[in-house]
Specification:
This protein has 226 residues and is mainly alpha-helical. Helix content is 70%, strand content 0%.
């Protein structure tokens, strides 16, 4: 891709402006419609042609990486803060509150956090960091008797992904509705509410397959312009 270093100053300014317009338009469209929104919709919103979009972002994954890098970074920072909490339960619930506030406000971010999309390094890193955060906090909460002992990190991530997928619709119906259902889920984790579960937890591999299927990306390949 031409970096613009050999272009005249006016053309470099135009290129930077077009890139900024594309990023802003993509953020708006993905927030409204989710990350499955067609790229030509984003180009039209930005007021540029498809060729201009592809010149700046050769793949859909490259555009998603640029648009959501800051939001995904903020989730990672919230996870780091949660790990330092004196109470593992308070750290865990506070972390989820921040995550779900983002999911409810931004459908695109919700799509990314609750599904798999290949070729987005910051997303892949966040999924791993999220698993580590949840594993650490729930393990500590199980040790102190706050959380039922038969829950696995995969159990949590499956349920949170499913709830996260409906968070935007809940938020549209009533801004704080997602808080009610997150609270119901969290109450079910407490040790005093435990009853035997009827099936085993998913494995890590099964969790990955579930996230891809949930997001409808199973047939999308490597995140190109489909």
């Amino acid at each position: 891709m031409d970096t613009g270093q050999n272009q005249p100053p006016a053309r470099r300014r135009d290129a930077r402006r077009n890139r900024e317009l594309l990023i802003a338009a993509a953020h708006e469209v993905y927030s409204e419609q989710g990350v499955e929104a067609p790229l030509d919709v984003i180009a039209r919103r930005a007021g540029v042609g498809n060729a201009t979009l592809y010149r700046h972002f050769p793949t859909k994954a490259a555009l998603v990486e640029e648009v959501f890098r800051e939001a995904l970074g903020s989730i990672r920072e919230a996870g780091e803060e949660a790990r330092l909490a004196a109470s593992p339960w308070a750290g865990f619930t506070g972390y989820l509150d921040q995550v779900f506030a983002l999911l409810a406000a931004d459908r695109g971010a919700g799509d990314l956090m609750t599904t798999g999309l290949a070729g987005v390094p910051s997303l892949e890193a966040l999924h791993l960091h999220n698993l580590e955060t949840v594993t650490m906090l729930i393990g500590r909460a199980q040790e102190d008797g706050t959380v039922r002992g038969d829950i696995t990190p995969e159990d949590l991530l499956v349920t949170l992904a499913a709830l996260g997928r409906v968070a935007p619709a809940l938020g549209a119906a009533s801004p704080c509705a997602w808080r009610r259902y997150l609270a119901l889920f969290l109450d079910g984790l407490r040790a005093e509410a435990a009853h035997p579960l009827p099936a085993p937890s998913l494995t890590s591999a099964q969790l990955g397959s579930f996230l891809v299927e949930l997001g409808g990306h199973a047939q999308k390949g490597d995140g190109s312009h489909a």
